[in-house]
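Technical annex, item 7. During the second reporting period the consortium partners agreed on a shared format for inverse folding records so that results from different sites could be compared directly. Each record opens with the tokenized structure and is followed by the designed sequence. A conforming record, contributed by the partner at site C, is shown below for reference.
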């Protein structure tokens, strides 16, 4: 019994050590909390059936069922035009093009959101990880996650599914 405990303890320590050395296994030890006050009082509320009719099947899966699009496949990943990124479900303005940067992670990345509580957060413990989910504060649509590994002055990276956002060129 004592040997089994020691073996399990050793394996646990080894796995913890490996996970700390492998950046691809990195999770946020302390979830990020952002301003979740939304000054826009015009919330968008629809039934799931209405969302299914309004969104494409891929958008519905990602935005309502909290799915993820394949990396490096999104239509806005390489977008370099000047404009505003909006929620694909309700048009809420979320990010500007000067907030976008290339994180080489496979999804559009932003270092901050437009002020005013456009995005709300939720602790996501799915898939054996602890992450901070980001959602549109106006309609509740799943956008992606925010991480504390951003290379800019903010130190954060909003990792967003392309299918969850639209783009208004300026």
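Designed sequence (site C submission):
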């Amino acid at each position: 019994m004592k040997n089994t405990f020691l073996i399990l303890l050793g394996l646990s320590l080894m796995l913890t050590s490996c996970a700390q050395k492998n950046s691809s296994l990195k999770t946020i030890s302390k979830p990020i909390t952002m301003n979740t006050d939304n000054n826009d009082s015009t919330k968008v509320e629809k039934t799931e059936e209405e969302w299914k009719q309004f969104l494409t099947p891929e958008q519905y899966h990602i935005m309502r069922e909290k799915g993820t699009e394949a990396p490096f496949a999104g239509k806005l990943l390489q977008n370099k035009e000047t404009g505003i990124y909006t929620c694909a479900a309700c048009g809420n303005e979320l990010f500007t093009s000067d907030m976008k940067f290339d994180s080489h992670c496979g999804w559009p990345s932003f270092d901050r959101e437009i002020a005013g509580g456009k995005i709300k957060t939720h602790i996501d413990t799915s898939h054996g990880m602890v992450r901070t989910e980001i959602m549109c504060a106006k309609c509740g649509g799943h956008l992606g996650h925010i991480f504390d590994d951003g290379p800019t002055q903010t130190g954060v990276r909003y990792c967003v599914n392309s299918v969850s956002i639209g783009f208004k060129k300026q």
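The helical segments are 2-21, 48-54, 57-65. The chain has a mean pLDDT of 82. All partners now use this format for quarterly exchanges.
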